[in-house]
Amino acid sequence: MILLKNATVYTPQPAGRKDILIADRIVAIDSDLVVYVPNLNVIDCTGKIAVPGFIDNHVHIVGGGGEGGFRTRTFEISFSDLVRAGITTVVGCLGTDGVSRSLEALYAKAKALEEEGVSSYIYVGSYRVPVVTLTGSVIRDLVLIDKVIGVGEIAISDHRSSQPTLEELKRLAADARIGGMLSGKAGLVNVHVGDGAGMLQPLLEIVKGTEIPVTQFLPTHINRNSRLLNSSIEWLSMGGFIDLTTSVSDLLDDELLPWRAFQEFLAEGFESQVTFSSDGQGSLPRFDEKGNFVGLGIGKVSTLYEQVRLAVEHGTPLEKALLPITKNVATILKLRSKGSVRVGMDADIVLLDQDLNIDTVICGGKILMLNKEQLVKGTFESESSYNCP
Questions:
Q1: Is it the case that residue 288 has pLDDT exceeding 70?
Q2: CATH 3.20.20.140 domain extents, the chain
Q3: Given this model, what pLDDT does residue 287 score?
Q4: CATH of 54-333, one of 3.20.20.140, 3.20.20.105, 3.30.70.100, 3.40.225.10
Q5: Percentage of residues of the chain with pLDDT beyond 70
Q6: Shortest CA distance to 334 belongs to which of 29, 7, 57, 40?
Q7: Pick the CATH number of 2-51+341-382 from 2.40.30.200, 2.60.40.1180, 2.30.40.10, 2.70.150.10
């Protein structure tokens, strides 16, 4: 067992200076805990801030890209990338490429990451409808496969999508909902929204015209342009969630940066309905100063917490800034033991220093990084293999 002494705790709500006793789950939180346990590991957290482990709900863990040909296929995520970014729970997905990237490989990678030390889940499918599944149906995948918590990323309003009909999207959402109900999972449909004119309209029509609730969908990349961002107000007003992508182009206007967009949504009263995800290992177009395409970059999971820090630096209280990568994500994904520092929750904790740098990462009660030194690495990793800056 581990005793974290004298930490300033954010649950993510501020809870003051506390001690936290953890095993694989959080056992106790109180002031001046006295614990008599053999071989207790006591860590002095004076001057450090304990927050929930970060949840990244959209990562191409087996790589992504490929839109520019075979040489533009991005590489797999590394375990160390996740640890150094403070990510203790990751959700893997496929994107444009559902041919050379398979669901079997996605599932295997998720299992590998969990064996190495972080919690992992996957979405079945890719951009295309009808979706490819592991068992032959969305419902069966959700009910029978432990890692599957939803479907995605399904592309709409994008030239790369399969241009699904409204009826196809309805059936997909209905199957995901039933699979989620039977398995006790979210059954979420993660929706890639492109920069096409349709924007969120297909999803709005489904929610308004059927009994499928607005929370069955998580539209992502909502900060890709101002039209889409502004149109999301109607979706939020209906009780829906939106996801902002933290791996962003340098050419984005300031209002499209996740931290700034979140501040606007806070002012509108939507603080509990916004999530961040990194789109890690996804391909990102790069342009020169004249706007000419010059190549592809790679989404980085390190940007997830960077946007939280930027929000705090620009005046957002820490307890609010943490919501899009902790409690809000756990709520929409129905990860009931994640997203909060409370007794009975999984012992996923990140310690921040006074400057809000990531100092220590604990997942499931196992210390992965301590005092900025990574203690646990991926199976085939070395010091020179880190991709995370």
A1: no
A2: 54-333
A3: 55
A4: 3.20.20.140
A5: 94
A6: 57
A7: 2.30.40.10
The encoded tokens of residue 108 equal 């295997």
**Who's near 354: CB < 8 A, 6+ residues apart?**
47, 48, 49
Average pLDDT over residues 251-259: 81
- Active site positions, annotated: 279
Please check whether residue 218 is in contact with residue 189, taking contact to mean a CB–CB distance below 8 angstroms.
yes
Q: 369 near 80, Cβ under 8 Å?
A: no
Are the C-beta atoms of residues 79 and 118 closer than 8 Å to each other? yes
Rg of the Cα trace of the chain?
20
CA distance 373 to 247: 25
Is the entire prediction scored with pTM above 0.85?
yes
Residue pointed to by tokens 């961040």? 276
Tens-digit pLDDT profile for residues 128-168: 999 999 999 999 999 999 999 999 999 999 988 999 999 99
Residues 60-108 pLDDT 10s: 999 998 877 888 889 999 999 999 999 999 999 999 999 999 999 999 9
Beta bridge partners of 276: 244
Tokens of 40: 């207790």
Do residues 156 and 148 lie in contact, with contact meaning Cβ atoms separated by under 8 Å? no
- Provide CATH 2.30.40.10 ranges for the chain: 2-51+341-382
